[in-house]
Design goal:
Helix 11 runs antiparallel to helix 16 and helix 15 crosses helix 16. This protein folds into 3 domains: 241 residues, no CATH class; 88 residues; 118 residues, no CATH class. With 573 residues, it is an alpha/beta fold. The N and C termini lie far apart (96 Å). It has 24 helices and 5 strands.
């Protein structure tokens, strides 16, 4: 008997290694250059809570108790840095790749494996995995808990559920979306209902979850007040719906930005998911329709929330990627007719789509004259027209399978390249820092330059043995507190100047003749903000390909007392 060997259906041995490859790739893209860029204000706000906890203070633990306490443990074992501040979300982000394995009985083995790779390289999940204090812990732990529960790994399910409850406000968004989805699907499609015996499985899971909350939520009973974070996370989520200002973020984004982020970063997944939904509606496939309901519910909850942030789309990505994986898996199959002809059609499709993309990218350059822009636009349309005509000629003049399969494979390759490009940008993996929609808060891009300047002043000032005193006035920036954390307790924050510290950091618009008389100053850019609402068509096109944006800059002035310099007029021998 002939046995057909296929990496997707042959044995669990191959599946194990392919899942291992997906996890390894996910770890690689999440850990590489994790400390390349300074923390944003929102990241630093959570990281400072963990840092203060390690240094012996008793800070109020906010709505992210899981991140704060686990990161404090990481800081204690290693040291506080940008890398360790983002380590916990990166680990949970990589662990999410395992989740499709627990649902392969419903998704199918091939779609589940494809979904694992989509999760590993999804721009949204990659960005959140490299963001301190992100909802990645809540999303990953809750999905893994669900998967472990339905596979009867009850201790693991309970531990993961406890971690999810400590993961911040997004766990409540996920639970609400799942509750609404399960209620609708049970009413409309009873065949999708889980058949797990509730009493035999839920009670042990809740017991393990309670133990996890008590141990991790108190950091092994060292920070008892960490349990308040669960209540604060629920309060923060509900406050967002009530449009209260104190929900943990300084600025809310307009709803259209969520749509733009979804269409740009998740363009390949959106296209594949739409095709899957149309196919599922035509065939009345219960699983596809159930995922479609979950997609709609999570999208409505994200967009309708007055306190919306782009990362609220995290729960939307789960059913979106599942639908995309189910459709993509249909196209990953052996060649139907003439291998070399199919590969040639694939290469031809890639070439024309790449040519069209290059010309479209050229339209984003503001330096091109109008005539050249018209030429590029015409070349782009010509390439797409030639591709369409070629597909029809091959289909009706040679072989329909070659035309269809070759063009689809070529399109999938280009969509994969688009996905990788946006993922590298969203995750901060490009060689230059880009303007992205997923991270909340304002980036402090020149924090490293400020710290290096202070170190130089401390090294070369008169009386270097004396500690450098730094006063910050009129600047409310958690990222600045984080950058100067190693100078504690010599860093003070003041609303008014009452003394003459060694170093003074104030906003650039601060005017004081006394400062100019007794200090030497240097202005520098601290925070930048993309003006998304002021984008024109050309600006959007430029950002689409290069992720550059029109940005406003917040400038600070670093004042250093004049008598600290070697060339001061009055020096002591």
């Amino acid at each position: 008997m002939q046995v057909r060997m296929n990496i997707f259906t042959s044995s669990r041995h191959w599946q194990f290694w392919l899942y291992a490859v997906a996890v390894g790739l996910a770890l690689m893209v999440r850990f590489v250059r994790l400390d390349a860029w300074p923390l944003t204000d929102e990241e630093a706000r959570w990281a400072m809570q963990a840092f203060e906890l390690v240094t012996g203070l008793r800070p109020e633990i906010g709505s992210q108790p899981g991140y704060t306490l686990l990161t404090a443990l990481v800081f204690f074992v290693l040291q506080a840095s940008e890398f360790t501040a983002r380590l916990v979300p990166a680990i949970f982000g990589a662990a999410l790749v395992i989740a499709p394995y627990f649902f392969r009985d419903q998704l199918g083995e091939k779609p589940a494996l494809v979904l694992a790779f989509l999760v590993a390289f999804d721009p949204g999940f990659l960005a959140l995995s490299r963001l301190a204090g992100s909802p990645m812990m809540a999303v990953s732990a809750l999905l893994l808990a669900w998967g472990a529960w339905r596979n009867r790994y009850l201790p693991a399910a309970g531990i993961l559920l406890g971690l999810a409850l400590l993961g911040g406000p997004q766990v409540w968004a996920g639970l609400l979306g799942l509750a609404i989805t399960i209620g609708l699907t049970r009413r409309l499609m009873p065949e999708l209902s889980e058949t797990q015996p509730v009493r035999e499985t839920v009670l042990p899971v809740l017991a393990y979850a309670g133990g996890t909350v008590l141990t991790v939520g108190t950091l092994f009973f060292w920070a008892i007040h960490g349990l308040n974070g669960i209540v604060q996370s629920l309060s923060s989520y509900l406050s967002g719906w009530l449009a209260f200002s104190d929900v943990g973020f300084s600025d809310f984004v307009p709803a259209q930005r969520l749509w733009i982020a979804l269409l740009v970063y998740q363009l390949p997944s959106v296209l594949l998911a739409l095709i899957a939904l149309l196919r599922g509606a035509w065939r009345r496939d219960a699983l596809t329709l159930g995922l479609g309901i979950w997609l709609g519910v999570s999208l409505i909850l994200s967009v309708a929330n007055p306190a919306r942030q782009v990362f609220d789309l995290a729960w939307t990505l789960v059913p979106l990627l599942a639908l995309a994986a189910s459709e993509a898996a249909r196209y990953i199959q052996p060649v139907k007719d003439n291998l070399w002809s199919t590969l040639a059609m694939t290469a031809f499709t890639i070439s024309l789509l790449a040519f069209a993309g290059i010309n479209l990218s050229g339209l984003a350059l503001n330096t091109l004259p109008a005539e050249q822009m018209q030429i590029r636009f015409g070349l782009m349309l010509a390439a797409l027209t030639l591709l369409g005509v070629s597909i029809l000629l091959v289909a009706f003049g040679w072989s329909i399978p070659v035309a269809v399969q070759g063009s689809i494979w070529g399109g999938l390759v280009m969509l994969t390249l688009w996905n990788l490009s946006t993922a590298m940008a969203a995750g901060g993996l490009r060689t230059y820092q880009t303007a992205e929609m997923w991270p909340p808060g304002l980036p402090a891009r020149y924090a490293g330059a400020l710290v290096e300047q202070l170190r130089e002043i401390e090294r070369w000032k008169l009386h270097p043995a004396q500690p450098l005193t730094v006063t910050i006035s009129g600047v409310d920036s958690p990222a600045l507190r984080w950058a100067l954390r190693t100078w504690n307790p010599n860093v003070t924050f003041a609303t008014a100047l009452t003394d003459t510290p060694d170093v003074l950091i104030v906003p650039a618009q601060t005017e004081s003749p006394e400062l100019q008389e007794n200090y030497r100053g240097q202005d520098f850019i601290w925070r930048t903000q993309a003006y998304w609402d002021e984008f024109q068509t050309r600006d959007w096109l430029g950002w689409l390909f290069h992720h550059r944006a029109i940005e406003g800059q917040e400038e600070l002035i670093l004042w250093v007392r004049s008598d600290l310099f070697i060339d001061a007029e009055k020096q002591t021998p």
